[in-house]
Amino acid sequence: MTVSNPPSGGRSGPAHVTRFDRRSFLSTGAAGLGAAALGLPGRARAAGRKEISFATASFFGSESFGDLVDSFNESQDRVMVRYIELPPPSSSTEVYQGLVQQLARGNGTPDVFSQDVIWIAGFAAAGWALPLDEFVDADMTSKYFEGTLAACTWDGKLTALPWFMDTGMLYYRKDLLDQYGETVPATWDEMARIGKAAMEAGDTEFGFLWQGKQAEVLVCDAVEAIASNKGGILAEDGRSARIGEPAAIEAIQFLYDSINTARISPADVLSWDEEPSRQPFTAGRSMFLRNWSYVWPIAQDPSVSEIVGKVGAGPLPHFAGGKSASCLGGYQLGLNANTKERDAAWEFMSWMSAPEQQKRIALNFGLGPSRPALFDDADLNEQQPFMATLRPVFTGATPRPVTPEYAKVTLALQSGLSKALVNGEVEREMAALSDQLDKIVG
């Protein structure tokens, strides 16, 4: 058995929590990992307990998720959780493939797993994720953001439990807004006007930076623009396309026009993902930027940012008559449909999603809670003041198309959107894309 390096951040972690690399996970499964391999003294610590396993991508923080698992194991004497650490989300393909191969075996391992929001429908449709209706009620679900619940629902059933989230947001030069006597723009037209004024005044080189690379992030940007115009990519049931409708066409036309008509965005955005678009902004070269929450601490770091103390962040703009929409990211919790310890698995995953653990994750990992009430928490407001301001952003969280065919849908979207943004034939390309999506999901 191959044992990988210590958890992220260089921490060795608790003695009985050991990282296993993906090959070990796939070749043996957590059920095959013996007590000695886990560092347990025989099976004494698990005596009388139900034993389950938890697999998750690893996230950087001042502690590891293994530390949370350790806290759960020490908090009660009914369930013993074995922790399996998968690669970080930057290697999401490996995380996805590892989970797919293991869940497809149908042996119940891992009993609980974390999953990117875009995998939820596929895992549920394959019968790998247990619907949670027997465990949850309306009072419990009311404690989470609506957008996260929507992303966790497939075919009318909650098949994942909200855990933590991230969304797209608008970064802006608050010093220049003050200088111009402007407020944070509520609509895309207002943003374009202010961005153009900043360029004409010579205060910035660009008005608005975003991500147009033919990749997943382009889908995220499109989701936000379309939803902010009261449009959609797929119908609510996920079985037909809406991207050929006027609301979607207008939204994608705006992105094209930002480069070619308003000229507030450089043509380079069509080859940029997150980091290439972030770097000019923190170098002081743009008025506005669409990106994720990771940008904030970078913007406040004087070793890499020219705009420390001059940046604000908030909800993305919307079209007239619409409302702000932010593409939902983050990882949510799933319960293996083949687990042999259903109640024990639920006890653990509900503990992991409880307010106390979500607060701990927010403070120690900087990952956004999926419970709105936590944004009123005094400790969170004091220790993570930026995150505490994100409640209105997360309130507008919008999932990407919810469909078990997402892998095919996103490739079609990336190609069709890219064509429209390059050739400017937005209506024609969206019509062709709509036909293609109908064939995929219909």
Automatic annotation (TrEMBL):
Keywords recorded for this protein, A-Z: Signal, Sugar transport, Transport
Pfam families noted in UniProt: SBP_bac_1 (PF01547)
CDD domains to which the protein is assigned, alphabetical: PBP2_TMBP (cd14750)
InterPro entries for the chain: Bact_solute-bd_prot1, SBP, TAT_signal
Main location: periplasm
Cellular compartments per GO CC: periplasmic space
Protein localization: Periplasm
Family listed: Belongs to the bacterial solute-binding protein 1 family.
Official protein name in the record: Multiple sugar transport system substrate-binding protein
Lineage: Bacteria, Pseudomonadati, Pseudomonadota, Alphaproteobacteria, Rhodobacterales
